[in-house]
């Protein structure tokens, strides 16, 4: 009998680990780096089928909620919910931090200033371009004379890709270029319609021993 109980316990633990593992795979906490004054859309990935949403910041304050048709905000000028997304407008330093949807951590947001960025690998970067015309995005690697076109976004929404992107890391985002899961080789200059809009240096993640020099 004892063995049977222990067996059941092990089975439960295994099952728990199994489902947790799955949740971990399907729900990724997004780590965004976004320049100030731009906006960001967050999706409630951990609870996608729930039509009701309650968004909280890292301090635990409810910043936006949607229950049925009723929508309310902590600050109407700052937040907006539509089509299942929370929009954070006019990003400023104070908006940096964690964002929770229905109790689950969805995103961690870093707010950048200027156009020279030092960002850890693995994060997701948004590079805005205010041009209302078509946007031709290009990239020049550090110490490389060659400019490589990434894609063109036409005003009618048509996107023409000019560069191989098998993992889909370069994504057109409302008036911005989104680079998902930054890699060290993404370091360089980014141009929108030939204007430099970002100088990026991707730095090695902390997992690789960022505290090595501390004794
Ligand atoms: C969008 O605009 C581009 C460039 O003007 C054109 O080549 C393309 O056919 C257009 N696409 C649609 C769906 O209208």
The helix/strand series, from N terminus to C terminus, equals HEEEEEEEEEEEEEEEEEE
The pLDDT mean sits at: 86
Structural class: mainly beta
Number of helices: 1
First-to-last CA distance = 53 Å
Task: Enter the CATH topology name of the largest domain.
Answer: Immunoglobulin-like
> Can you list the ligands bound to this structure?
2-acetamido-2-deoxy-beta-D-glucopyranose
Q: How many structural units, i.e. domains?
A: 2
Give a verbal description of the structure.
With 215 residues, the protein is mainly beta. It has two domains: 2-112, Immunoglobulin-like, CATH 2.60.40.10; 116-213, Immunoglobulin-like. It has one helix and 18 strands. It has one helix spanning 2-26, and strands spanning 30-35, 40-43, 53-57, 62-67, 70-73, 79-82, 85-88, 97-101, 104-112, 116-120, 124-128, 135-141, 147-153, 159-161, 170-173, 176-179, 188-192, 195-203. It has a nine-stranded mixed β-sheet with strand order 5-4-3-8-9-1-11-16-15, with no helix packed on it. It has a six-stranded mixed β-sheet with strand order 10-18-17-12-13-14, with no helix packed on it. Strand 12 (135-141) and strand 13 form a beta hairpin. It starts with a helix and ends in a 12-residue tail after the last strand. Residues 11-25 and 207-215 have low confidence and may be disordered. Bound molecules: 2-acetamido-2-deoxy-beta-D-glucopyranose. Residues 42-101 form the Ig-like domain.
